[in-house]
Amino acid sequence: MTAYTMEELHSLDPRRQELLEARFTGVGVAKGSGINESSNQSLCSVGSLSDKELETPEKKPSDQRTRKRKGEQYDKGGARSHKISDYFEFAGGSCPATSLARGIPPLVRSSCQHSHSNPPVAVSTSPLYSDLTLEKLTALENNKNSDLEKKEGRIDDLLRANCDLRRQIDEQQRALERYKERLNKCVTMSKKLLIEKSKQEKRTCRDKSMQDRLRLGHFTTVRHGASFTEQWTDGYAFQNLIKSVHTQPLQVNTHNLEEDIERQRKLLGKRKPSTTTTTTTAQSLTLLTTPNTMEPPTAPNSSGTNKRKSKTNGQDNEALSLAEYHEQEEIFKLRLGHLKKEEAEIQAELERLERVRNLHIRELKRIHNEDNSTFKDHPTLNDRYLLLYLLGRGGFSEVYKAFDLTEQRYVAVKIHQLNKNWRDEKKENYHKHACREYRIHKELDHPRIVKLYDYFSLDTDSFCTVLEFCEGNDLDFYLKQHKLMSEKEGRSIIMQIVNALKYLNEIRPPIIHYDLKPGNILLVNGTACGEIKITDFGLSKIMDDDSYNSVDGMELTSQGAGTYWYLPPECFVVGKEPPKISNKVDVWSVGVIFYQSLYGRKPFGHNQSQQDILQENTILKAKEVQFPPKPVVTTEAKAFIRRCLAYRKEERIDVLQLAQDPFLMPPFRKALATGAGPLVSGSTPSTSSAYNSSASN
């Protein structure tokens, strides 16, 4: 019977057996966990209860119904004396390991739980002893509590700090809002004051212009057939000056006065003492000093002078004595000198009035263009740049003096307006090309190049560039006012231009300016003895690897653009393919600018228009430059101009060679370049000393 029962237990479904074991094991664990939660000492401090005995609960009568037949068989057989409840864990401690086994790992307890598969093994248990005492547990608990209190205190401190920081952030945010509001008020007030100042300056300029209209002159509209043209009428300053020239005591002008004085000098020459009278006087003086002379001197006329008959004006003129002649001649010389001085003063006054008149004409045109501009009412472009007043106007652009409200500085805003008749595709390509060039210009950083601060679009037909503002005028205006300059002043300007061109050719990719002319060279303080800055990179060419060849150069895609007086011959060659250009274009422009600064005129096509230059092929025929005799210029300067204006580009020096030219070098570098040693006594002066002496003369 026992063997049959064991086989029945072993033949039980493993899944059902597993569920059955889990059911009973779960109950025991649940009860054991409750015991663990009820006391911390039931598992850990059993050894500390040596003076106490475990109390066993009283045996309660069991209400369970027993299976008498099987129980009797087990009792009678004696082979298996254990009950089935011994194989499971109960709360009452029916397992032989007692309640202490609940603290033992499941691997140990498996002998009790799974004893139905293997014969039961007697396990001897002994109480577990720990080194922890109640004092140590109390100390650990106190330490843990103190650590917990510290952490809680730290958390409270961090929470308070967080609250303080949040409060500070809120305060800073409110302060930032106040500062923004205050800044907006300041910007608004600045705009208001700048606009008021600009309006006041405009009124002052217009009042002065009205006064100068009477003094210097004005434009009047004259009708010629079916068309109207503007004609200039001089003011009272020029009229009074012309009257003062013609209003003399004898009612003759300066030229007539000179002719009258020259005629009187000729008459005086006819009354000059004769040579016989002078010889007789000398002989008488000789006889007085030599008493042995036998012949008496010839007696002069009783009047002491010889009479000469002259038919001038039908009257006889008597010869003057030597003293009287010199007296009259000195008077005529003084009169001529005074007359020439007056003529020089009148000429200087006339030139001064002409310079002032040029300024007046320029201001009249500026006021006219400003009144007709769409940006005359002080708009703020790009929410940043406040336009103040018009500086000038070109073909397709206007330049305004503006104020940068963000950076708080004056700037020059150049407004480019495209031709409205262009197709949208052409406008887009032009705008894309311009933006590319301005991105390159914005990266340029050189003291001789005007800085580009910003560029942005206004609409499809216009865009703006924001440039560095310079107070002075350009070189073109200076030359119109003063005609020319000294060689030293021109050399200083050329040195600065070449320095900027050298920088443009040392960066990567290199840049060709292509539009160098006096109008694009700004004089910072308005004089020729100061610093200069190069501006207007609208036609500049970027020599990147895709389009530039170091041997042939790059193709000129914009043939016909630029200022013809300052472009080399290769830019005017017409063929099947576009001409090739390099940085030697700028070298030619440097030579033309230097020539014009020294002589007051352009070397080629001086009085011609751009259309005439193009039709007559003036630049293509400019194979050699001619120098006028005056003003006097050193041979070194002439040789420098010839090197810049070489007709064939293969014979012309490039920008880097131009920067090493001896004419632009300081004296000590020039001496090193030429290989000259130190001067000794008796040696000839160096080129630099000769240049300085000739320039000072």
Automatic annotation (TrEMBL):
The keyword Coiled coil applies. It comes from the Eukaryota. Its cofactor is Mg(2+). PROSITE patterns: PROTEIN_KINASE_ATP, PROTEIN_KINASE_DOM, PROTEIN_KINASE_ST. ATP binds at residue 414. This is non-specific serine/threonine protein kinase. Its EC number is 2.7.11.1. It comes from Oncorhynchus mykiss. The keyword Coiled coil applies. SMART domains: S_TKc.
